[in-house]
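Mods, move this if it's the wrong board.
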Amino acid sequence: MVYYGISLNTSALAGNPYLNAVYMSLVEMAAIVMCHFVIGKYGRKRPYAINMLLAGISLLLIQFIPSNAPTFVTVLALISKFAISFTYNAIYIVTAE
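Not the wrong board. Structure tokens:
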């Protein structure tokens, strides 16, 4: 749910919506590539749990950002997109076992 919510809500972020979509895509590709290396080195459970926690914390922190700092909201959204993309990719690896 969170993965699709972040992906479909990129147009609500401050700035150019097309550039935000590019940023989200680049962050997602980086998360997918990094997921395979991190899971191969550290196992599955710990990186999965850390990134779920990171996504939750960064999404909760967005609520406390003042409206005059839209760039910080975009940065936190990118962090949460990275973390949730990492976990979304990792769950496919975990369930295959």
